[in-house]
Amino acid sequence: MTILATDTVQLAQALIRCESVTPVEGGALTLLQNVLEPAGFTCHRLVFSDPGTPDVDNLYARIGTGRPHLCFAGHTDVVPAGDEAAWTVPPFSGEIRDGVLYGRGAVDMKGCVAAFVAAALKYIHHHSGHLPRGSLSFLITGDEEGPSINGTAKVLHWLKDRDEAVDACLVGEPSNPKALGDEIKIGRRGSLNAEIIVKGKQGHAAYPQLADNPVPKLARIIDRLASAKLDDGTDNFQPSNLQVTVISVPNTATNVIPAHASAKLNVRYNDAWDRPKMETFIRETAAKAAAEVGAEHTLSFSGTGDVFLTKPGMLVDTLSAAVKAVTGRTPALTTGGGTSDARFIKDHCPVVEFGLVNATIHQVDEHTSIADIEALTEIYGRFLTNFFASV
């Protein structure tokens, strides 16, 4: 089937039909490369690997060599379809019913990728096949829904090694909770994981004096952490929160005191904190609680995203104006939700996020209206025009 690359709906359908469940490329990046190269983009397929993680295929495509350099970042990998029998339509069919496009990735985020590609190609065509100034690029990964190790972060390092700077970036994550134009993400809270392991001594439950039960001790520690008030929020961020997500005791016998117990927790923190400050708080709170009950414990941390904020300015204002011109709504500038690959990009350039309505992401019958896809394409087109005219 021949795809008209400037037709967002056709391109979105074609991308949905690529079964690119993380980390499988599924033909999605090849499809984009075949669309972008004839339009004058220089494409690089970048496969990265890391011990213990699967290889990931990424696409970096750029047209132009000058500055300003605007990058659109996104991903073509999707989460699994789940119970396919529960879907109204096959999850990788890209079927349209009553003005609605269904399929895994329709919202998160193949529809957004298709909209920006279509907008970019229309913009280039309007200017006789060239950019009037600057450079435009696509950074599309196949690892956003997975470990996020061999994707955007490594492409950015590759760009840095080439002395290739990006001046601004738009990430096409679905940012709107109810209607297109609701919100632009201008930052994200930091995300930090921690694991606490409390050592005990295994023994018979009838003879507790001969054992050392780690479970009550662990409970004391996680109660202190979970009940602590972190802050009241800041001007741009909601309050930080700490959630205990896993409690594990390697024991299946009801009459055995276990040898150790562990818990995992996740913290979403605002700009009143940074990662070192949050780690210090957790260490000190856990140590104080452990001392109260004589717990021998260890604590480890992991996480890939610190808090960041892109303050209102030319980039935010240009996108806001484009959204309002198309939708009639003045988008709220927000920082809520989970993490995205913007957490890597913020170390290289200012970054904002705007995409489709996120009400059905990762769900059975994920879908978006055709009207929203077409409106998003128009928003991206206005944004491109005004960005290169303003910088």
Concise synopsis of the structure shown:
With 391 residues, this protein is of the alpha+beta class. It has nine helices and 19 strands. It has a six-stranded mixed beta sheet with strand order 1-2-6-3-7-18, sandwiched between helices. A four-stranded antiparallel beta sheet has the order 12-14-10-15, with helices on one face. It has a three-stranded antiparallel beta sheet with strand order 4-5-19.
Distance between the termini: 39 Å
Give the overall form. Answer: elongated
Runs with pLDDT <50, length 5+? none
Q: Strands of the largest sheet, in order across it?
A: 1-2-6-3-7-18
Q: What about the largest sheet?
A: 6 strands, mixed
Which structural class matches the secondary elements?
alpha+beta
Share of residues in helices? 25-40%
Number of H- or I-type helical stretches: 9
Based on CA atoms alone, the radius of gyration comes out at 24 Å
Strand residue content: 25-35%
From N to C, what is the helix and strand string?
A: HHEEEEEHEHEEEEEHEEEHEEHEHEEH
Mean pLDDT: 96
Number of strands: 19
